Amino acid sequence: MHRLSRRCSSLSAVLRHAAAPRRHLAVPLLSSISSVGEEDAKARWYSVLSSEKSRNYQNLKKDLFLGKRYESTAAESAESNSTPSERYEYQAEVSRLMDLIVNSLYSNKEVFLRELISNASDALDKLRFLGVTEPELLKDAVDFDIRIQADKDNGVITITDTGIGMTRQELVDCLGTIAQSGTAKFLKALKDSKDAAGDNNLIGQFGVGFYSAFLVSDKVTVSTKSPKSDKQYVWEGEANASSYTIREETDPEKLIPRGTRLTLHLKRDDKGFAHPERIEKLVKNYSQFVSFPIYTWQEKGYTKEVEVDEDPAEAKKDEEDGKTEKKKKTKTVVERYWDWELINETQPIWLRNPKEVTKEDYNEFYKKTFNEYLEPLASSHFTTEGEVEFRSILYVPAFAPTGKDDIINPKTKNIRLYVKRVFISDDFDGELFPRYLSFVKGVVDSNDLPLNVSREILQESRVVRIMRKRLVRKAFDMILGISMSDNREDYEKFWENFGKHLKLGCIEDRENHKRIAPLLRFFSSQSEEEPISLDEYVENMKPDQKDIYYIAADSVNSAKNTPFLERLAEKDLEVLFLVDPIDEVAIQNLKSYKEKNFVDISKEDLDLGDKNEEREKEMKQEFGQTCDWIKKHLGDKVASVQISNRLSSSPCVLVSGKFGWSANMERLMKAQSMGDASSLDFMRSRRVFEINPDHPIIRNLDAAFKTNPDDQDALRAIDLLYDAALVSSGFTPDNPAQLGGKIYEMMGMALTGKWSASSGQFHPTGTQPHVPETVEAEVVEPAEAGTQK
Questions:
Q1: Per residue in 713-723, pLDDT tens?
Q2: Could you tell me which of 542, 565, 558 has the C-alpha nearest to residue 647?
Q3: Is domain 520-600 in CATH 3.40.50.11260, yes or no?
Q4: In the chain, where are the structural domains located?
Q5: Which residues does the chain have with pLDDT short of 50?
Q6: What is the C-alpha separation between 745 and 384, in angstroms, rounded?
Q7: pTM of this structure
Q8: Among 521, 523, 543, 546, which residue's Cα sits nearest to residue 534?
Q9: 613-751 in CATH: which number?
Q10: 556-585 burial: b if 16+ Cβ within 10 Å, else e
C-alpha cells in the first residue's frame, strides 16, 4: 500500500509540473489537480488505511471493491493543511470554438443571409430609436434601407445597411467577443432606463448571428461608420483563424456616410450563393417581411428598335430598278443594364387590421405564399394577447394535396413560423398543430417564442403548448364556420377531402372530442346518399331511444342489407353506416355524444327498449333444449346459442362479443400487411349464434330435434346454417371450399327430380329413354404375362 501512495504522489507531481508552464493554453483543467500536493495524497491514502484498526484487510478490500464511500477526501485534506488553492479561467481555442459554432448551431447554410439581414435591420432600428432623443445622429440624410450586391464571377456578396454603425471599441466588443449580443445589451439598457416602448422590433439576442457568415465564407470584411465617430473602421477576419484585424479606412472610394458594409468572400463550394437570382429567392423566403426595404442588384432589360445595315447587293438592285425612296430596316433588341430592385414587402398582411383587409387580399396572399392556384375554403385572421402574444392567419385549402397522404406524414411545411417578421422555419413535427390538422395552412408571427440559438428548432415549453391550444381552437372555429355556412357544398367539399383527418382526431386528441364530434358526417339507414351530422341524428331520434346505433361494413350497400338491421328498420330506428376503415375506431374512441352512447348493433346484448320478459321466458322454455342441441353440435365454433331479438326475416345471425373485434374490424386486421397472427387470435371476440324462433327453418330444426336429434340431414342443415350466418354477418369462412360443397349438396337435394322427364313425357321420334341394364360382375383370375386367357 505504501507503493500505491508513492505512485499517487508521483502522478500529482507530474500533473503539477506539466500544467505549470501551460496555464496560458486552452482549457487547462488538469492544472487544478496540482493544487493537491504530495502530502495530501499521503493523507488521503492514510485515511483509508487507518480503518484497518477496526477490521482486517480482507474486509477493507471487499468494501473498496463494492464501492463503499469514505468521507475523507482530498478537499478535506486540503482544508486540514490549509494549502491555498488557485483559480483559473476557462480558456478556449478560438478557431476550434468558431468551427463548432458555425457547423453545430446551423443545420442549413442558406440561413446566413437571414442572420445578416436581421443584424442590419437591428442596426436600423437602433438608429431610428436613438434618433428620437439624439437628432444629431440623423444629420446625414440617408434613407433607411438594406442593399445586397452579388458578384457571381468573383464569388463575393456585399450587404450594406444605413444603420447605427459601430465605433472602434464597439467592433472589438461586438465582433471580437463571441456570443455577446449588442442588441441584447441595447435592450437591457433600454429596460434599465425605463424609457423603452412596449413594442420593439429588435431581432438579435444570442450574439452569434454574425458568425453564420463563416458558413459560406473564407473571409469576411466589415467596414462600418458610426455617426458618433468621424472615422470609418474596417474589421477583417478569416474562417478557422484565432485572430482578427481592425484598421482605419483610408480609401476615399470606400467611404460610406453611415452604417455598415459586409463583404463575404465565399468558399469555392458555396459560390452558388453569389447569383442574384439565388439572393432574391433567399430574401423572399426568409426576410420578405423585414420592416425596412431590401434592394438587390439585378440585371434588367428593355426593348428598343435599332437600324439594320442594308445589304450592298440589295441596295444596288434597288438603284437599278429606279427606287429612290426606300424604308430603313429595323430590328428589336434587348438592352441590358444593372439597377437596384426592391424585393420585400415592408408591411406583412397579418400586422394589418383585419377590418382593412379584403377577402381578395387574403386569397392573393394565400396563393402567393403557398403556391396554390385555387382559393381557400376559409381563412381566419386573429391576434392573441395576454400571457402569450402572437398574430396569425390560418387557411383551409380547397383540396387535399395529391400524391401523398398527410395523415401518415405530419411534416407538411404548411405552417410558416416568423419571429418579429423574420422567417424561422416551416419544418415542424406536431409542435404547433397536431397531425390530424396538418392540412391547415397559415403563418404564425410572435415576438417571444422560445427558440434555440440557431432559431431553427422550436423548444418545447409552456408557451408553445399555450400557442398550440389557441391555434387548434381557432382552426376548429374556422372549420365550424364552413359547416354552418349557407352554402352546403363547401362543407361537402371539405369533408370529402379532409374528413379522414377529423376522424383521426377522434383517436389522437381526446381533449377536443367536443369540438370534433359536431363536425363528423356519416351515412345512415335513412340517408344513404348524403352524409348527416351527429346533431341531425340526435334530432331524428325516437322519444324512447336512448342510444346511437351504428353498424360497420365495407360499403353502404353491405350495411343496408345486413341482417342486424331488420328489427331496427321495422321500428324505424336510424342506424349510422360506418363504411370507412377508420370510422369504427373513431366512434369507439368518442364513446358518446350529448350523453347518448354509441352502440354497435352487431354486438351481443343489444337493447332496443322493447323487452318482453314473458315472451322471452316462453321462447326459452320452448327452444331452450334446441339451442343446447345446436350448441353441442357446433362445439367451440360459438360461445353460446341464444334467441334473437334483432331478426325478423333471417333465420339466424352470428353476433360478436361485447369486448372483442366486430366482424368488420376482424376483416380489417386480417388485411394488415404487418398483422400479427397471435394478436388476431387473442382479439377475436367470442361469437354468439342467435336464432329467429319465428322462422320456418328454425321451427323445422326444432321439430327435428324433438323427433330425431341424431338425424344427419338435420345436423348438416345446422352446419350450413352456421356457415351462411358467418357470411351474412360479415365474417370470413375458414374453409370456403367446404362451404361451397355443402351448398352444392343442398342444391342437388332440392333440385333432384324437379325438371327430370317422367315416363309419360313426349320424346322425339326414334329415341327412347335410356334405362341402364343390370350387369353382374365377373371375377377374373390374374394371368401370368405371356399367356392368353
A1: 889 889 889 99
A2: 565
A3: yes
A4: 94-296, 349-483, 520-600, 613-751
A5: 1-58, 60-80, 194, 196-200, 203, 205-206, 758-789
A6: 74
A7: 0.72
A8: 521
A9: 1.20.120.790
A10: eeebbebbbbbbbeeeebbbbbbbbbbbbb
Could you tell me which residues are annotated as the binding site for ATP?
A: 115, 119, 161, 166, 181-182, 205-210, 260, 455
Q: Which amino acid is at 407?
A: I
Q: What is the CATH number of domain 349-483?
A: 3.30.230.80
Binding-site residues sit at 115, 119, 161, 166, 181-182, 205-210, 260, 455
Report the C-alpha gap between 286 and 424 in whole angstroms.
7
Measured distance CA(193)–CA(135) in Å, rounded: 19
DSSP H or E run through 527: strand 527-533
Pick the CATH number of 94-296 from 1.20.1440.20, 3.55.40.10, 3.30.565.10, 3.90.550.10: 3.30.565.10
Q: Which residue matches cell numbers 323487452?
A: 611
Across the beta sheet with 640-643, the strand order is 640-643, 687-691, 652-656
**pLDDT tens-digit readout, 592-603:** 999 999 999 998
Output the CA–CA distances (angstroms, integers) from residue 335 to 216, 298, 300, 304, 342, in the order listed. 34, 14, 8, 7, 21
Residue type, 231: K
Q: Are 566 and 538 in contact (CB under 8 A)?
A: no
Four-CA torsion 650, 652, 653, 655, nearest 10 degrees: 140
